[in-house]
Automatic annotation (TrEMBL):
InterPro entries for the chain: HTH-type_Bedaq_tolerance, HTH_MarR-typ, WH-like_DNA-bd_sf, WH_DNA-bd_sf
Lineage: Bacteria, Bacillati, Actinomycetota, Actinomycetes, Micrococcales
Gene3D superfamilies membership: Winged helix-like DNA-binding domain superfamily/Winged helix DNA-binding domain
Pfam families: MarR
Name of the protein in question: MarR family transcriptional regulator
Single GO molecular function: DNA-binding transcription factor activity
SMART domains tied to this protein: HTH_MARR
Domain HTH marR-type: 4-135
Length: 152
């Protein structure tokens, strides 16, 4: 492997480990898939099932099932698509937004103790690296017309 491939593999492995670890230790009764979908709805705003499925790399039936679960929890709502009467748009409800913020706070609380072991200079370097990586990803392959830095 060349150095860029090595870094790419290391980043993917670390990101997956970090996400699994934070989700497992954070105290909330929401599946990782539900949390990810809440974050996706927050990022995209009102969106069609097809747009959400494409952004999450799954089939429309799979996305429809996942969205029905969020709707049954009161975390997502459907409204008619003003551009196409046959379609609907899905978005977060205020309760869904609250659930997502609770998830984000719980995950951050899990990571905060680890970050206290770093000195201020290391925290600043880590933050700079995270911002640079996020900017690179947003420039390289935005998944939406409204890319943001929000995630689960």
């Amino acid at each position: 492997m060349n150095p860029r491939e090595t870094v790419a593999n290391d980043l993917l492995r670390s990101a997956a480990r970090l996400s699994r670890w934070a989700s497992r230790l954070a105290a909330f009764d929401v599946s990782y898939a539900q949390a990810r979908l809440l974050a996706l709805l927050d990022e995209l705003g009102p969106a069609r099932v097809s747009t959400l499925a494409e952004a999450d790399h799954c089939s429309q039936p799979t996305m429809s099932t996942a969205l029905q679960r969020l709707e049954s929890q009161g975390w997502a709502q459907r409204v008619p698509d003003p551009g196409d009467a046959r379609a609907s748009l899905l978005s977060l409800t205020p309760a869904g937004r609250d659930a997502l913020e609770e998830i984000r706070r719980a995950r951050a609380a899990v990571l905060s103790p680890i970050l206290t072991t770093l000195d201020d200079a290391d925290v600043a370097r880590l933050r700079d690296a995270v911002v640079a990586l996020d900017d690179l990803l947003l420039r390289a392959a935005p998944t939406t017309s409204n890319p943001t830095r929000k995630d689960v």
